[in-house]
């Protein structure tokens, strides 16, 4: 199991979202092929930071898949449409 940290930033003019909203958005876009086991999340006025526990063959795969899940959540969740994924960064 791999641990991958992630972070989102939100625009300053957006209202603060609860962790439940962000967590639900992440789980909503996960499918069994993502290997997601558990997600921990903390939100603040700046956005959200979290850790994804994933089953993956190696660390680079875990990072790529975590990034893909985060990007899908941002793309399909209206409340997160102005948010930005800042970590894990593209390599």
What topology emerges from the helices and strands here?
Elements: E1 2-9, H1 19-28, E2 36-44, E3 47-54, H2 59-76, E4 84-87
Antiparallel strand pairs: 1-3, 1-4, 2-3
What do these coordinates show?
The chain is α+β, with helices and mostly antiparallel strands and 91 residues long. The protein is 31% helix and 32% strand. It contains two helices and four strands, in the order βαββαβ. Strands 2-3-1-4 form a four-stranded antiparallel β-sheet, covered by helices on one side. It is globular, with a radius of gyration of 12 Å. The two termini are 21 Å apart.
Task: Supply database-style keywords.
single chain; 91 residues; alpha+beta; 4-stranded antiparallel β-sheet; 2 helices; globular
What structural class should be given to the helix and strand makeup? alpha+beta
Query: What is the number of helices?
Result: 2
Strand content: 25-35%
Query: Largest sheet, if any?
Result: 4 strands, antiparallel
Strand arrangement across the biggest beta sheet: 2-3-1-4
